[in-house]
Every structure is written in C-alpha cells, then in structure tokens.
Design brief:
This protein has about 500 residues and is an alpha/beta fold. About 45% of the residues lie in helices and about 10% in strands. The chain contains 20 helices and 14 strands. Strand 10, helix 15 and strand 11 form a beta-alpha-beta unit. The two termini are about 40 Å apart. The relative contact order is 0.09. The structure holds uridine-5'-diphosphate-xylopyranose (UDX).
C-alpha cells in the first residue's frame, strides 16, 4: 500500500527532471551505528555519500577501513564502497555539508538526567548546516527525536541561515534498525516512513530510497537471491507523525517485553511454562510471536532511552502515560529478580566462582550500553563473588568498565571450576555448547538462564540444577513426553517446542 499525501505522480515533470535519477549526493552527519549503516547502505544503493563526525580519530580510522562498531556485513560493504569512491569520510563538517543535496542527521540524542532526549547535538548540526550551506538542501532527521523536533530544526535553520537565497526543506525519516541486523533492516525494511511537508522533499526521498523500495541493488546480505518477502510499504506522513511513529513503535515493543516478563512471573507462581504460553499467544495474528521472550528484560541504547523520552514528552504535553512508566519499572525489576535467583541458589554469594556467558545487551552486537549484564556484574562484585566472563564480541568494552572481572576466550574456561553459570545474552552459541562437557568441569552444576535460552528438561537430564524465568521443570505440562537424550541436541539446534494441547 502506498500512502502518498502529495500525489506527486501527476504534474511533476520538472521535479522528475531535477531528481529523476538514481544517483544523488548525500551527506551523513554522525558516524555512529545509525550514520555508518545509513551512509554505507545508501552508497551500496548507488548514491554518492560523504560521512562526517566530530571525532577526528573516528574519521581517520574509517578512512583506513577500520569500522569502530561490530555490525554484520558492514565492514565489507564499507570497504567496497570506499574503494569504489562512492563512500568517503571527512572530518571537515563544512565540506560534508556543502557536498550533499540531502543531509541525513544521524547524531546521538542521549538521555538527560531527567530522561528527556538531549538535543544539543541536533542543534549544533542545524547551526552548522545553516552557516555552511551554499545551495538549497533537504535536511533529514534520522536520529530518534521527540515529536516537534522537526519544527525546531526548521526554525534554527532559518534563524542561522547566512545565505538568504538558500532554502532548507526539513523531513523526518525514522530508522527502525536493530543492532546486529541493521544492514539487513536497512536494505530489506518492512516499512519506510517519510515525514514531509512539501512535494519536493517527498520526491527527493523517494529517489533516494528508490533502489530499496524497488529492490534494485546488489544485496550483500543474502548470497543467493533474497528471500521472497513483501516489498516494503512506504508511508508518507507529516513530520510530527513520523517522529511519533518511532517513539510509539519502540515504546510498544518495550511494553510487549515487559508484559511477557509479567506473564513469566505469574507462570512461576501458579505453575505454567512461559514459552508455551507466549508461543500460543503469538499464533494470534493480532498479537504476533515476536518480542515475547521473557528474561532479563530490554537493554541497549534505544528502547530504554526512547521509553524514558516518550514518558517525558507525554508528561510535558499533559498526558500521564502511566502504562509506559510501569513497563519501565517492570524492566528494572528483572535484575532484582535475577539476582534473587542467584542468591537463593548459591545461598552465600561471597567468594563463589560465578561464570557469566554473554555481556552484550543482545546477541550479534558488541554493544553493552544499558545492557542488563552491567548491573548484574556490579551487584555480583559488590557481594564479593569471583566473576569470570565470556562474550564473543563485548569483552573489550566490558573490561574497560569492570577490570576486576576475569575474561576468557572461550565459554568452557569460564565454566571451569564455577559454582554457577549465568546466561545474560541470547547468543545462539550458548545453545550449542557441549553441556556434558560443561557438567564435567563445573564445581557445581548450576545454570541460571537470564534469557530462557536452554530447555529445562534437557538441562535436568544432563544433571544440572537449572533456573530460567517462568519455566521450571515442575511447571512443564504433565502431558509432555519425557525428553530423550537426543532431544537435547534438537533443542540446542533451535527446534520448536511442541505445542501441547
Ligand atoms: C530497537 C528496535 O527494535 C529498533 O527498531 C530501533 O530502531 C532501535 O531499537 P535494538 O536496540 O537493536 O533495536 O534491539 P532490539 O532487538 O529491539 O532488542 C532490545 C532489547 O530487548 C534487547 O536487550 C533484547 O535482549 C530485549 N528483548 C528483545 C527481550 O528481552 N525480549 C524480546 O522478546 C525481544
């Protein structure tokens, strides 16, 4: 479904002349997760892209082909597009501003003390663009911002404009990229949102996204042809609506996770298996199966801060978004519940060898910002535990915060001599461990699974004392057949749970 508010298809020949080509000059300001993925994917789609950042070391590293973040496919794509000169980097922000017909603002909007988004980086970039632009520009907000930021952006661009003949058009194009699958999400989005207030901006954004909307690009993610899925839906809205769509989507996902976590708590109390409950819930298309995984709760740089910013935005507008506050409270309580499980199992935490598997806020990323693991580590260390940890990507970043933790290059070393093994990130690698071997090397075969990654029955069969969230062995349905040893391997390979009727 195409929702075009300005009906540009008719009578837009001059526009076609102006922007009817697939290669545009694009500037990207901010080389973090969003900026690097956006810039690289737009170059991959055929555009001429220049990226800038206020950290000159980052730009020097990028020029040398060093990507400062772990994101599947990004290194290779960045290198290839840099080589073919479709993607370049500069620390001269003015040069970057002058280069692009369209400028994507991808700077950070971190939370302030009070939870509101800090928009100072957006304000700085707006003043820079206003001062440096010598020709008219489309200025696109890609960073997640509260509603009405676009209006402020327009005002600042106008107020600080040096060249009276330069015209600025502002648009919002929220990103829905998940870390770990950001490249795939950019190139194969389920929806693309343009928040615009004029026909020219819509036309230009359509041209920028045309290769992606029409799937006319060489896909670096899928080796063979891309999976046959529905083409992305383009949604054209006002700027305010586009800004709200981003906050409303992330906040809803956060509420969904907190809801699943509350169901898990009820399962533990009344006897039920959260995986069975959420699986059956998710089969209702009105609910859907995703974001119902119970455990340690949501972390990362987006969901927690977007929830807070949305609560504050609602408050300032006179709306008490209490259900969102509750979702946030439920999320914070997950750590308390998890640490309580550790205390109950270990009795005395002090001097115990505690092995930690997983530090990143979720699998397939090295990002530990607002990761539940950080608070778990802090509390274990405060209680005097001897902590040893493994994560395939996030150890360097974590060791900078917790140098007193011992880090190992493989999970079995962490398990060796441990009194308890904690799973804090849903890395698939942990499912595939040789649990018989783990059993043999631990001081005490105790696993506390903060991500419900493993099967309680299979773990019991291996001789482990196992605790997850909302699924204990006693609570498994009585009709479930006894699990043969071979089922452990099947569960490890990610096989589906049987739905017991
Ligand atoms: C999120 C949004 O999904 C994305 O659309 C937006 O653009 C950026 O923010 P991301 O922060 O990469 O993406 O992580 P996401 O996959 O949403 O996971 C967030 C957190 O929720 C992780 O800590 C994850 O472990 C947790 N989670 C996710 C659950 O606890 N249960 C679930 O069922 C799903």
């Amino acid at each position: 479904m195409l929702l075009a508010r300005f009906g540009f298809e008719s009578g837009a020949e001059s526009l076609e002349k102006k922007f009817g080509r697939s290669k545009l000059r694009i500037s990207v300001i901010g080389c973090g997760y969003v900026g690097l993925v956006t810039g690289t994917c737009l170059a991959e789609a055929g555009h001429q892209v220049v990226c800038t950042d206020n950290d000159p070391q980052r730009i020097t590293a990028l020029k040398a082909g060093v990507v400062p973040i772990y994101e599947p496919h990004l290194d290779a794509m960045l290198a290839a597009n840099h080589r073919s000169q479709k993607l370049s980097f500069t620390s001269d922000a003015g040069e970057a501003v002058r280069a692009g017909e369209a400028i994507f603002i991808c700077v950070g909007t971190p939370p302030l003390e009070n939870g509101e988004a800090d928009l100072s980086a957006i304000d700085n970039v707006a003043r820079l663009i206003a001062a440096e632009a010598c020709e008219s520009k489309l200025v696109v907000e890609k960073s997640t911002v509260p509603a009405q930021t676009g209006q402020q952006l327009k005002r600042v661009l106008g107020v600080y404009r040096r060249n009276g003949s330069v015209e600025f058009r502002v648009a919002s194009n929220p990103e829905f990229l998940r870390e770990g699958t950001a490249v795939e999400d950019f190139l194969h989005p389920d929806r693309v949102v343009f928040g615009v207030e004029d026909e020219v901006s819509e036309k230009q954004l359509r041209e920028i996204y045309r290769p992606i909307l029409e799937r006319r690009f060489r896909c670096p993610v899928h080796m063979s042809p891309c999976p046959a899925t529905e083409p992305p839906t383009l949604v054209v809205t006002t700027i305010n609506s586009a800004e709200l769509i981003k906050h409303a989507s992330n906040s809803f996902l956060a509420m969904k996770i907190s809801y699943a976590n509350m169901i898990a708590d009820v399962c533990e109390k009344v006897g039920g298996d959260i995986k069975e409950v959420t699986r059956a819930m998710g089969l209702d298309p009105r609910i859907g199966p995703r974001f119902l995984d119970a455990g340690l709760g949501f972390g990362g740089f987006c969901l927690p801060k977007d929830v807070q910013a949305f609560i504050r935005l609602a408050e300032r507008s006179g709306v008490d978004f209490s259900m969102l506050k509750e979702a946030e409270r439920v999320n914070k309580r997950r750590i308390d519940l998890f640490v309580e499980k550790i205390r109950q199992a270990l009795w005395v935490v002090k001097d115990k060898q505690v092995g930690v598997l997983g530090l990143a806020f979720k699998a397939n990323t090295d990002d530990i910002r607002f990761a539940p693991s950080l608070e778990v580590l802090r509390r274990l260390l405060a209680e005097g535990a001897q902590v040893r940890a493994y994560d395939q990507e996030a150890m360097d970043k974590t060791s900078a915060i917790f140098p007193q933790v011992r880090y190992f290059r493989e999970p079995y070393e962490v398990a060796h001599g441990a009194d308890a093994l904690l799973i804090l990130t849903e890395w698939p690698e942990f499912r595939q461990l040789d649990w018989e071997r783990v059993y043999g090397i631990m001081a005490r075969p105790l696993v506390i699974d903060g991500r419900n990654l493993l099967e309680p029955a299979a773990m019991a069969e291996h001789g482990f004392e196992y605790h997850g969230f909302g699924r204990t062995l006693e609570n498994l349905a009585p009709a479930a057949p006894p699990v043969p040893a071979s089922a452990f391997k099947a569960a490890s390979a990610g096989a589906e749970l049987p739905l017991v009727s």
